[in-house]
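Lecture 7 notes: from sequence to structure.

We start with a single chain of 227 residues. Read the sequence below before looking at the structure.
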Amino acid sequence: MRYLAKTVGLFATLAILTTANAAIAHPKLESSSPAPDVSTNPAPKEIKLNFNEGVLAKFSGIELKDEAGKAVATGVPATDPKDQKQLIVPISGGLIPGRYTVSWHAVSDDTHRVEGQYSFQLAQDSAPGASEKPRGTEYRPDSELKAADKDGRGDMCKCPSSEDKNVGRGSDREDRVDRSRNRRDDREMERDDGYRGRDRESRYRDSSRLRPECVVDDEGVKYCRVR
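Now the structure, written as tokens:
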């Protein structure tokens, strides 16, 4: 009987200790988004805090400050409807590149309050177009590009600079190219009864005002185009 009494007493003590430990347990922050000391971009739209037990959004929240100590506006805290352990706080204020500090506090279902703090970095935006493939046409002054247009001329083009006296008039070589192309077109157009020789002369004079453009097409192919 004495042994049985000791055994019952031991189990009773263990039960009391277990209950006491559960009663004094506090919520613990397990992870967050953005994570501590991470460098992120683009700017986050909300702060997510994940705890090891459910928290009460009404009594929980954060304070977000930039590296100058200025508070950033945040929205009303809420818990995930499917996971009461996750506290979500929207960011309503604008963020600029720099370091931010999150000071948080949370109250668990058993009314225990805990608090903590961590920081994250908002990285600078990358230079516009730095990693993008060139699209559309782009004028490239003072550059020599290998011709790759569809008519297969295969020549080299040097786009004139703004200081070139021949800008707008065309070089002799360009005139020869244009005149050759015009003559080819003339032979085709001579079949039309309405075409006259004086029109050809006018076209040759107009061709002297043409000049080449170095362009890049939608697929990033560089070529020379005469207009």
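The helical segments are 2-23, 172-189, 197-207. Keep this in mind for problem set 3.
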